[in-house]
Amino acid sequence: MTVPADRQYTTDHEWVLVEGDIATVGITDFAQDALGDVVFVELPAVGATLAAGEQVGEVESTKSVGELFAPIDGEVVEINDAVVEQPELVNSDPYGAGWLVKVRFAALPEGLLDPAAYEATLS
C-alpha cells in the first residue's frame, strides 16, 4: 500500500494534503483497495460547510458502499468533477487524479495522523 509522505491521514482512511488554507481530500490506497472497483462517487456541493467527522458523501463500489467523512471543518471550494464522471480514477490514482474535494479551512483538527502513524493502523 502506498502512503505518500506529504499528507496527513485519518483513521477513516482519508488523506489530507494542505496547501496554504486549502486542503485537498481523498481516500487512501488502502481504502480504494478494500472497496474494490469504484462505480459511483457522491460529493458535497461547492459552498457546503463541512464539520469534521460528519458524513459528506459516499463512494460506491461493486462490493460495498463507503461513507465519506469530513476530516476537517471548512467550506468546499472545489469538487473533482472527473471522479464523478469517471469513478474508476479513485482506484487508478487515489493520491492524484482521484482526489475528491478541496476545502478552505481556518485550522487543522488535532488527531490527523502522519504517514508512519497511519501505516501503523494498517497492521
UniProtKB/TrEMBL annotation:
<comment type="subunit">
    <text>The glycine cleavage system is composed of four proteins: P, T, L and H.</text>
</comment>
<dbReference type="InterPro" id="IPR033753">
    <property type="entry name" value="GCV_H/Fam206"/>
</dbReference>
<dbReference type="InterPro" id="IPR000089">
    <property type="entry name" value="Biotin_lipoyl"/>
</dbReference>
<dbReference type="InterPro" id="IPR011053">
    <property type="entry name" value="Single_hybrid_motif"/>
</dbReference>
<dbReference type="InterPro" id="IPR017453">
    <property type="entry name" value="GCV_H_sub"/>
</dbReference>
<dbReference type="GO" id="GO:0005829">
    <property type="term" value="C:cytosol"/>
</dbReference>
<comment type="function">
    <text>The glycine cleavage system catalyzes the degradation of glycine. The H protein shuttles the methylamine group of glycine from the P protein to the T protein.</text>
</comment>
<dbReference type="GO" id="GO:0009249">
    <property type="term" value="P:protein lipoylation"/>
</dbReference>
<feature type="domain" description="Lipoyl-binding">
    <location>
        <begin position="22"/>
        <end position="104"/>
    </location>
</feature>
<dbReference type="Pfam" id="PF01597">
    <property type="entry name" value="GCV_H"/>
</dbReference>
<keyword id="KW-0450">Lipoyl</keyword>
<feature type="modified residue" description="N6-lipoyllysine">
    <location>
        <position position="63"/>
    </location>
</feature>
<dbReference type="GO" id="GO:0019464">
    <property type="term" value="P:glycine decarboxylation via glycine cleavage system"/>
</dbReference>
<protein>
    <recommendedName>
        <fullName>Glycine cleavage system H protein</fullName>
    </recommendedName>
</protein>
<comment type="similarity">
    <text>Belongs to the GcvH family.</text>
</comment>
<dbReference type="InterPro" id="IPR002930">
    <property type="entry name" value="GCV_H"/>
</dbReference>
<dbReference type="InterPro" id="IPR003016">
    <property type="entry name" value="2-oxoA_DH_lipoyl-BS"/>
</dbReference>
<dbReference type="GO" id="GO:0005960">
    <property type="term" value="C:glycine cleavage complex"/>
</dbReference>
